[in-house]
Each structure stands twice: as C-alpha cells, then as structure tokens.
Amino acid sequence: MADKILILTGDAAETLEVFYPYHRLQEAGYEVHIGAPSKKKLQFVVHDFVDGFDTYTEKPGHCWDADVAFADVDPADYVAIVVPGGRAPEYIRNDPDAQRIVQAFMERNDPVAATCHGPLLLAAAGVLDGRTSSAYPALAVDVTTVGGVFEDGGGVVDGNLVTARAWPDNGTWMKAFLEVLENARVPA
C-alpha cells in the first residue's frame, strides 16, 4: 500500500495549486486524498495576472470531489500534508479540525507543504513562530505578525516545511517538497 498524503483545501482553492501537487505526488507513488470542511464536490478557481491590475483576477476553475471531511481525518493515516492557496485558506484557517491536522504534522516534524495563501492556515494553527515561510507576497505581514520570517521564494525549505509564493512556483515547490519527503522516509 502506498503512503498517503492529504491536501487540505476547500471551495475557491486555486486549481493549479491543487492539481499540480495532486498529480505530481501520485506520479511519485503516493496515494493522495483531498480533505475539506465537508465531503462534497468542491469548486476551484483560476487566478491570473493581468496587465494594469494591482492584484490577481479570479475566474471559475475545475470541480473535484473531496475524499474526506477534516473532522474525520486521523493525521496518523498520512505521511505529509499539502495546503494549496486560493481563497480556501482564508476560511479553512478557522476550522478547528484543519488547525488540529496542521498542528499534528508540525509537532511530529512530518513534511508540510503550503503555497500562496496556504500559510494563512499555518499561521492560524500557531505553527509559524520562528519558522521561515514563503507565501503570496502580500501575505508577508501575516507571516511576520505571527512570529515567522518571510522569504520571497519559490521553494523555501525550513526543516519539514516547504513553502512557495503561488502557482508559477509549482515546479520548484514540488521539487523541494519531494526531496523533503524522500529525506523523511524511514528505512524499513
């Protein structure tokens, strides 16, 4: 049986930040589950950068079924978690079960990946104090406000934590995360 990885997300997550790690981790041999506030069909979005706009734009993206509700997740069933960005982290950060899951992985020093707005969940879970994290650059203040160190990079590694700015960093983010996953494996 393949090791399992959980993606913590919800409606309005950035499509590319969910699907790229989902498929890349499957390709690397992991069983990947989508966790959300409830087990339902999720509506993702597409963020793009348009000349003349001060921030990104948002359009409807793909839909995908959640495999498990946060409340039903036993962190011991998974070897790692991924927190994509988009708007989902803005509200899942308030979910006590999402916070519980993140805290369990950080306490065990197991691999955690987050990108774009994903570090909002890490901040709400109280796990960024003293840690270096990337995020969507507008969230630098959110990282530093909770005692973290913001680094504007695409595959920022701080021990078990791998973070990035947004979907243009998907390649460097997942490359770094796969290296952390490989180094975390315990020989049988």
From TrEMBL:
It holds the Pfam family DJ-1_PfpI. Residues 4-179 form the DJ-1/PfpI domain. Transmembrane segments: none annotated. SUPFAM superfamilies: Class I glutamine amidotransferase-like. InterPro entries: C56_PfpI-like (IPR006286), Class_I_gatase-like (IPR029062), DJ-1/PfpI (IPR002818). Belongs to the peptidase C56 family. PANTHER family: DJ-1 PROTEIN (PTHR42733), DJ-1_THIJ_PFPI FAMILY PROTEIN (PTHR42733:SF2). This is DJ-1/PfpI family protein.
